[in-house]
Amino acid sequence: MDWLDRYQTLPGIPDELIDRQGDARGHWLRFLSGLAQASPREMDEHFALATRHIRDTGVSYRIYGEEGEQSWRINPLPLILSHAEWLDIEEGVAQRAELMEAVLKDLYGPARLVSEGHLPAAVVTGGADFVRPLRGSPPPGGRYLHLYAADLGRGPDGRWWVLDDRTQAPSGAGYALENRLVLSRAYPQLYAGMNVERLAPFFGAFRDGLAASAERAEPRICLLTPGPYSETYFEQAHLARYLGFLLVEGEDLVVREGKAHVRTIAGLKRADVLWRRVDADFVDPLELNSASRLGVPGLLEAIRAGGVVVTNLPGSGLVESRALLGFLPALARQLLGQDLKLPNIATWWCGQPRERDLVEANIDNLAIAGAFRGPGRGPASAGPRLLADLEPAEREALRAAMHDRPLDFVGQEVVRLSTMPAWRDGGISAKPFVLRVYAAATADGGWKIMPGGFCRISDKPDARAVTMGEGVESADVWVLSDRPVPRVSLMAPKDKVHVRRIPGDLPSRAADNLFWLGRYLERAEATLRLVRGLKTSLMESEATVRGAGETLGRIQGMLVAWGALDKKAADSPPTEAAIRAVGDGEAYGSVMALVRSARRAASSTRERLSADFWKLLVELENRLSADQPGGKTEVLDRVEGALQAISALTGLSQDNMIRGDGWRFLDMARRIERGVNTCRVMRQFASEDPTADDLDVLLDLVDSQITYRARYLEGMAVVPVRDLVMLDPFNPRSVAFQVARLTEHLQALPRLRNDGMIEEPLRLALKIAGEIDSEEAARLDAKKALALEQRLMQLSDALAARYFLQGSSATPTKKTSALA
């Protein structure tokens, strides 16, 4: 096989494809032989399919410190592990998870490991991960850890070594799931024929374990996220959707009477379990980091009261510290009566005199790293580094810091890790990798190991500190079974699932984001219609013909008033002004700015939007971000294309979204924005003595040309136009139609109080509807249109005050709200 002939391993480094004798391993040969049967064109199609799903669904991550998202990078080749080898990994990871749970149980309980001298106290208290307020409080649900992960690499001896333990808030499981989806679609026959173990049983066991830890039979499980600017927000949204959890941020939660509740549009709803993806230091600003905007005030008190299960429990990151690594072999014998089945890198904590002397004597041959994780500055916050790799000033700073506070540092054996095949330039190359393996606590008290994991491949020779940054990609992990693998999914037995016709309670934050997603898209459409009016042949005809110049001036004035153009740009030629109004991202009211705002709102409620919706929205933004068009035809083509994309987004929301509360807020936003915009264009083009051009443009802006011409063969007249765009209940673009739909939505939304009184948003909608029903088109002037516009804006404010979060205390969190 030509690929194998060109494959070069690194001298002295174990490789996953080539064994110690220089022969290709059998399971890799099976995979590569099956892959090689395809033609070069078919190979390209396989790889294109592997990346198309990533692009279409917006799989992404964010590098820490950067605002923009990066498209997910996946290697077209999986890491393949045999059944026998996987059994050793599985046993070792399960043992290590049990050890970590036992260590945490002791350190937050009787602390015998410290009092009996098995562990120095400074190893426990030296870092920021020890959450002292929870010491002595048994964890609700009985566990400190529900999810554990170990970063593994194959050492020089061919054995798997533990590089790091992940107990704070292990990430990557959702990306492992996404990687599997991509490669199983790219190579369906190979995937089925090689008996690859499925991932669904692991996630099912994890979900069942969380449910069993709660007090109620049907608990509400929430995934607590730092928000859309988290590096792994896509993964968190994906897992919440896949597992059926409610995705919440800190401001979505409130503690009342020792229990945690979600702020929803229907009031407070109890949160039984929180899967925490926020670092422990930020979960409670009352008792921990007071500057945190990510946590929930009073959450630690709720944990101590047993009112909410939080996993992994705040403070569990304590056992991630490198200072602990050197003690783990002895702790395994002390707590489990066993030797570690998976060794970790030899580590010496400099807080002990003998170990410090050893590190100083061999400092040029060891990697120096910070002993504790968490926020910090200077050398003690860095990962493993060789002194030879540092600049002279950095070496001196590191030595000085080790002299001042030796307990903040460890020395670690330098281990060069194994390599695996990665696809490069039409062939395969050996690249170092790290494998993260997950263990989930099960309902029966055991551990379920994910058959596979999250693999990261680096182009750098040292893979111990691989993160998803530059030059790093991920890979699926195939664990092969020795027998056919049944098709397994997260489907539950028939007798365990109750029929539901609504998707559950809608958090106030999600309602807010869906509402503004709808408003931004509708506003972008209205702006596009104005730009199209600016570029029609009528607008570029002679200004003296049929009064076109006055109409053009009104359109330009509206674009300025809406923030799509500044006054200087409005005076430029129509083509140039149109380009600016569409693509100038610096103008807050331009189409580009509005679509970007829509995407930001959508990203904050991503778990509630379909892949097709997200794909269309990203494509719309990319289309607007492309090189600016030149001539009139190109501008019109871009405007028409953007209008079609927005129409497709509207169609998806109308045809594919369940008619639940989330859809209602998205639709109400469109109705309010459309009603407001219609009032505004009516005041401009159909108020006092409008021309035929004015009325013609107005009908274009509200997409009612065909309806008007079918009804009125006599030609343009101001009263019929006003009636059609403002008062006609049968015209889906009229203000009357929008208000009627708003009233229906508000009547269907949940109420906070069952006192028989009409709430303010519905009261306003009914009042507006009454005014419209009693109005006459002949008497409808600019003043009345302005009054309707202002009433609709008041309705928007009333909706926000009633249903959305307002600072630290939203209306739905009042004590009069029902608790469920």
UniProtKB/TrEMBL annotation:
Residues 78-457 form the Circularly permuted ATP-grasp type domain. InterPro entries: ATP-dep_Glu-Cys_Ligase-2 (IPR051680), CP_ATPgrasp_2 (IPR025841), DUF403 (IPR007296). It comes from the Bacteria. Residues 506-804 form the DUF403 domain. This is Circularly permuted type 2 ATP-grasp protein. It comes from Phenylobacterium montanum.
